[in-house]
Amino acid sequence: MRRSEYLDLAERLLDHVENNTTDSADSTYTVPVADYLDEDRWNTEMEAIFKRKPLMLAYTDELREPGMYKAMEAVGVPVLMTRSKDGKVRAFLNVCSHRGAQIAADGLGKASRFVCPYHGWTYNDKGDLMAVADKQKFGAVNTGTKGLTELPCAERAGLIFVVLTPGEPMDIDDYLGGMLPEIESLGIEDWHIYKQVELSGANWKIVYDGYLEGYHFSTLHKNTIFTFSMNNVMAYDSYGPHQRIGFPHHDLADLREKPQDEWETGEGMSVIRTIFPHVSMAGGAGGGLISQLIPGPTPAQSRTIQTYIYAKLPETDDEQAMMDASMEMTVAAVRDEDYATGFGIQRGLATGANKEFTFGKNELGLHKFHSWVDYYTEGEPEGRRPNL
Ligand code: FES
Ligand SMILES: [Fe+2]
Q: Which terminus of the chain, N or C, has less C-beta within 10 A?
């Protein structure tokens, strides 16, 4: 975070703490519970949002050098990402043009040629079909038109974004808007992945809601996050559908004891940045936790890939032990507190006990998130772009 922005956030948070206030909406906001349950609605969300908008599917660190690749499934779509000698990252449907087999097994690897495990057709890392096995017996194939199907792909600020629909227009700079300089200022392109953990979760919106407010810290996270972070106070900013939330730590007020030029950038607060529709980033210049939420395979399910990624990996046993302890605390808070609660909500929704949910003025991030989901699922109607 830039110094001036940190100072601005710190002043705003100090002001809230001293006055017992928080950034908030003008009024509460209501959503029908059916929005979380309805299967048609979920399918529309997948088609209008997850298949059309840029998803953050990989880190620069995972494809650091030419020849590296990553294969994964996202909302039912098998994706292959490669970095070729020209330095460019490309994405493809991980589907053979012969009879549709998955070409590269899910995971990370190094290869400049991909051989289909079914009949051995071979592609290069730019997706071109290079060889048809036993071509003479196979017969005529126009190799020029039988390459892998390319997906729109862009690399920005250490993150790799892919649109899951071939040919869909993608303007990543326009899409990220004001969030781009925010994430660029973190320097993620130089960070290194320490560890990754995959968690199962409930409906993707139940899960994402939990990343967008600090109203639950003193209750759900009494023995974890609340040990350092204050409850129900935030400095809130949004950039289109993307959000940045500053949460004050209990010791934030100590900043008042010293002159501003002695405040260390990042001191006294946690900052969460979200990239719509599925990324949450917790941390600052030294690194932190980035979560990629992937909905499915059913409306009531999702999975989250948590990546612990740092500017500097631990060098000594002591540093490693400290990093592991902090990571384990976070995994436990998210899995045993947030995600366990999410499964309970999912069960609760199905009972019909609630017809609608009311988000408080203090749950402003949820107002914003649900407004954007509505806007996209309704086909981005003219003049209805959310402006909260
Ligand atoms: S399906 Fe890939 S070579 Fe046949
Ligand atoms: Fe939480």
A: C
